[in-house]
UniProtKB/TrEMBL annotation:
All copies of domain Glycoside hydrolase family 65 C-terminal, residue ranges: 677-730
Superkingdom, natural source: Bacteria
Species in which this protein is naturally found: Hafnia paralvei
Lineage of source species: Bacteria, Pseudomonadati, Pseudomonadota, Gammaproteobacteria, Enterobacterales
Protein name, as recorded: Family 65 glycosyl hydrolase
InterPro entries in UniProt: 6-hairpin_glycosidase_sf, 6hp_glycosidase-like_sf, Gal_mutarotase_sf_dom, GH65_N, Glyco_hydro_65_C, Glyco_hydro_65_M, Glyco_hydro_65_N, Malt_Pase/Glycosyl_Hdrlase
Gene3D superfamilies, per the entry: 1.50.10.10, Glycoside hydrolase, family 65, N-terminal domain, Maltose phosphorylase, domain 3
PANTHER family on file: GLYCOSYL HYDROLASE-RELATED, PROTEIN-GLUCOSYLGALACTOSYLHYDROXYLYSINE GLUCOSIDASE
Recorded family membership: Belongs to the glycosyl hydrolase 65 family.
Amino acid sequence: MSSLTVLKEPIFSPHTLKKYASLMAAGNGYLGLRACHEEDYTEQTRGMYLAGFYHRASPNEASELVNLPDVLQMRIEMDGEIFTLLSGEILSYQRELCFATGELRRSVLWLAPNGKRYQIDSQRFVSAQQLCLICSRISITPLDDRAVITVSTGIDATQTNSGRQHLDETSVRVFEQRYLQGKYQTQNGADEVVISSFCEVAGDTNSSFYAKNRRLMQHCNARVAAGDSFVLVKTSWVTHSLDNEDHGSNLAEHALENLMTCVAQGYDKLLAESTRTWNNWWLRGRVVIDTHHYRDQQALDFALYHLFAMTPTHSERCSIAAKGLTGEGYKGHVFWDTEVFLLPFHLLTQPNIARQLISYRWHNLAGARRKAQIKGYCGALFPWESARTGDEETPKFAAINIRTGLRQKVASALAEHHLVADIAWAVDIYFQTTGDDVFMRERGVCLLMETARFWISRVTETNGRLELHDVIGPDEYTEHVNNNAYTNYLAYHNVARALSYHRQFSTQPDRKFIDEASDFLARLWLPTDNDQQILAQDDSFLSKPSIDLTDYKAKQGTQAILLDYSRAEVNEMQILKQADVVMLAYMLPWLFTPEQLRANLDYYEPRTIHDSSLSKAIHAVVAARSGRCEQAYQFWQQACLIDLGDEPHSCDDGIHAAATGAIWLGAVQGFAGLTIEQGELHFNPCLPLEWRAISFPLYWQGAHIQLTLTQQKLTINNPSVQPIVLWLGQTRFSVQLGEQILTLAEFISPITGSGTIKGLDE
Ligand code: BGC
């Protein structure tokens, strides 16, 4: 395997502190840690989060992913000079995140205001193997003269979510003059978090401890000769009461025991152990491309690094937040992003993770049923934004208009219902990929039927046909419309799959359900394309005026259009925030011929600002499927820059988690041309000329295969005795044990396709 890339921070700049704290954040799906510097900066936002650890501060507010007490911060003093890169002179600076090991390293040569030089090197990682473990090491070397070095660090519970404190400090202790431990409880008393830390300093050091104003601190002081180093290794263990059989003193005692065991192993051994887990991750999922565009490979490695860091595999009770575990954006809530943008990667590499993500919804069915009932519907209406319980968490209001004092209502919770069908879509591809009938019997069919019941009750009957009124499709700039094509087709798909799986798996046919579902499928209005092959986004969209969006497209991602027009005005124009009909083409690829794909891309893309990070990569996939490899490549490269680009504030409050999944989608579902249709795996490759090859592992129906695609050939390596069936273009193959090489020119002609927008072929 070619070696993994690294992510480097080009310079130290106060302007990009928040961005790099997100980009270089560490995590293991259980715990996330922003990549803040040890020393404090006003511009910096520290953050440590535990997946699923939310708290609602007051009944009028949404639950938030709690920003936990900090263990990274260090106050460093050399000869009375407080270390900060805002004073003195930076003689050299490197900071890099190593994707292979998950280790973040910084190396600074600092000329202090006192005229002396100090070398300050630090390293840290969150263990990929022991989920509660954080290790860090700092080494300070006075270069010109002997020095008195003082470091204060500990557990700092003054952290907040933008000023909102969610935790009460219940106890702080120092055990054996060595181990620090703080216990904290959410202010509603429901959950507890215990943080334990130990600092080891080599040589002759004085240490003292104190607890004051929510800080439990250790103060270390040493005299160091010129050229010698002061080295401090800090090991921390972070645990909580959710999903944990341990509570109260047990939780704290076990935390201390675990911390001690780790301390005995030391930084290097713990890093090596964690690296082995990372190796396994890369083996299971890494996409390797042969190209001279380093940044393409880096974007894929970045994406997979964060996919590991953000995905909770330890519990079915939490899912992936919109910013992963890298920041507080969207308050740590879970959206359709998970099922549609993130789940496919997991499904096609480690399907047990996909099962867990779907199970999160299954556990939260009660909340979804409650929401449906409150709104007067049947079945399950999943919340647009979800946290711990499955109840709706979308804030009622968005930003305030400071001139009028009025708050803008957020309509998504009221009408952005496509999420329900997106969850059903994920259940369907899960079964097609795994054939896991146990899951279907126990959870999958129930999820499909409950979501189908929602749609059946959601319709409006108009002249005998069933329509879906007052919805918001994926494009959030177009609200409260009738018959959004995406929503109607996905709802149809939801009900059709529910009916089919019910027939396949349920021992007792539910006559009422079968009749209602059959009627829904017979009468639901499925909009058709016009004579230019354009599928209308909704009933009114094509009759609205268009405006030139060039300026707004240049500022995409910033919602600049809302500075010039009110939401109501935007709603009355042909302006898309993100892919909508194009999104439909991604989800249900068999509906569109390549000509229809091209027609709809050409119509909708100029009207799409791409203000959502979920838009560009989907355009890449659809452009590739339409046969436009180079256009697809441009979209994909732009999608890779959403977080990694030069914009200094692109991800201040956390990375765009779904966009990382979409980077993988672009490579595998776009360029390699993978689709799943009627239980079979299809490839219609469209490799950009800049790539000589792409190679990736893939799970399919019980087998882990390896695929390598060049401009000429597709090589499939099937290590299992079980043959794999797949399609290349229009030809179906059975790939036996070993390697099979297929010449593309024999099977891939200029893309044709058999799709029809007229109806769904279920
Ligand atoms: C997008 C949604 C997305 C959400 C969270 C919004 O800006 O429009 O589609 O689910 O961000 O990522």
